[in-house]
Each structure stands twice: as structure tokens, then as C-alpha cells.
Amino acid sequence: MSREKPYSSIVAHYEDCLSRFGDTHLGVDWQNADDAYKRYQIMLDIIKPEASKITLLDFGCGTAGLLDYINEKKILYIDYSGLEISTEFFNVSKKKYPNNTFFNMDILDKDALLPCFDYIIMNGVFTEKIDLSHNIMFSYFCSMIETIYPHCRKGIAFNLRSKQVMAEDQDLFHLSLDELAWFLVEKFGRNFIIRNDYGLEEYAVYICKEP
Q1: What angle do CA 78, 81, 85 make, to 5 degrees?
Q2: I need a surface site. Which of 101, 151, 166, 186 has the fewest CB within 10 A?
Q3: Residue ranges per structural domain of the chain
Q4: 45 φ, ψ (degrees, to nearest 5)
Q5: How far is residue 164 from each of residues 130, 159, 161, measured CA to CA in Å?
Q6: Could you read off the pLDDT of 67-118 as tens digits, one per residue?
Q7: Which phi and psi angles does 203 have, rounded to 5°?
Q8: Nearest to 211 by CA among 194, 183, 197, 190
Q9: Residue 199: Cβ within 10 Å count
Q10: Nearest 5°: phi and psi at 26?
């Protein structure tokens, strides 16, 4: 990946975690395994009951931990695909699950090559900002959401760090609910859900294409 891209430092950070901790929650920089496990269910809660299988893209799939969870819970109605900008993470996921589809690409370069899915999950994609300013990270976040949105049929789920904390971590991306809501309303209308009911210092967002 070209190093002049501002988000290259975020990718490098996660690749360093993977090299040190391997295929674990620490390898994708989640500090608590139980919290990481909880996030999987929160992300999947966007899926409405379906009579048949749905397609799902795990955007920023890491080591395909969400697919581990899906298999453990024996969730049979999800046709899973993953996407990673990092070749290192892509290789781990593809080796674990050779029968699943994985994309190794930067969506801001190649979004036209990505097919459509019923749901897209972006778990932890916007947690770290590392050395980026808030404004640059917010611009990157907006570009990512606007670019991926046309590739979903039903909805997108992602999570963000809350600003309602005792102290903000300067390496993390804390986004106010007001700043987020203005962006969502202006770009996608009012059909979105913000969840702050699962006990972590973050919130989950569902952008829905259907009421």
C-alpha cells in the first residue's frame, strides 16, 4: 500500500498487532476478548429475519473473527465474504477459510470492482486514528461510508468510540453523536439507528436502506 495515504499508519498499526499477537483478539487490537465477542452480536443485530440466506461483507475482516463467531453460533443463513486492505490479514483469513470469498483491496481505490451485498459490517474499522488529526480521520471516515454505501442492499453496521468517557485516548477516534448525526442526515436521510445499550465506551450505528 502506498505510504503517502494518510490512513497507512492505521494499517501499519494493525499489522504490527498481528505480528506480535497472531490470530487473537489482541492481534486485531481488541483489549478484552469478551468485549470483542459482544461486538460480533451487536454488529449482526442489524440483520432482519429472512426467509432465505443473506449475503454479508465483513469489511476490515481482520482474521475473520466474525466468521469464527458465526460458525460457533451455527448461524446458517449468512453467506459470508470478507475484505481486507492488509495483505497480511487477508492471507490469514484466506488460509483459515479457503472456501469463502475474500477481497484484498483498498475500497477508496477500487470500489467499482466490489459487488453488492445485502449487509456490510465494519466492526472496529474506525476505532484507531493513530497519528491522524480528528478532522483528517473524520474526512476518511466519511469517504469510506459514502464509498461503501452503494455496495449494500439492506444496510451497514459500524461502531465508533464515544465522547462520553472520563478521558479520551488520543490514538482513538472519538466522534460526537451530533457530528455523526449531521453527516448521516445530510448524506443518507434519517433512516439510521444509534445504539448505546451494550455497556462499552462506544456506540453502534446501523444505516438502513429499508424502514
Answers
A1: 150
A2: 166
A3: 8-208
A4: -65, -15
A5: 20, 14, 9
A6: 999 999 999 999 999 999 999 999 999 999 999 999 999 999 988 789 999 9
A7: -145, 155
A8: 190
A9: 8
A10: -70, -30
Average pLDDT over every residue of 150-155: 96
Helix 65-72 crosses helix 33-44 at what angle (to 10 degrees)? 80
One DSSP character per residue, the chain reads: --TTSTTHHHHHHHHHHHHHH-SSTGGGT-S-HHHHHHHHHHHHTTPPP-SS-EEEEEET-TTTHHHHHHHHTT--SEEEEEEES-HHHHHHHHHH-TTSEEEE--HHHHGGGS--EEEEEETTTTSB-TT--HHHHHHHHHHHHHHHGGGEEEEEEEEEE-S-SSS--TTB-B--HHHHHHHHHHHH-S-EEEE--SSSSEEEEEEES--
Instruction: Specify the amino acid at residue 132.
Output: L
Q: Is the pTM of this model over 0.90?
A: yes
Residue with cell 465508533: 160
8 Å CB contact between 107 and 83: yes
CATH of span 8-208: 3.40.50.150
Per-residue pLDDT for 1 more than 50?
no
- Could you give the CA distance from residue 18 to residue 89 in angstroms, rounded to a whole number? 8
How confident is the model over 111-129, as pLDDT tens digits? 878 999 999 999 999 999 9
Contact between 13 and 27 under an 8 Å Cβ cutoff? The reply is no
CA dist 29 and 124 (Å) reads 9
What span, in angstroms and rounded, lies between the C-alpha atoms of 169 and 167? 7
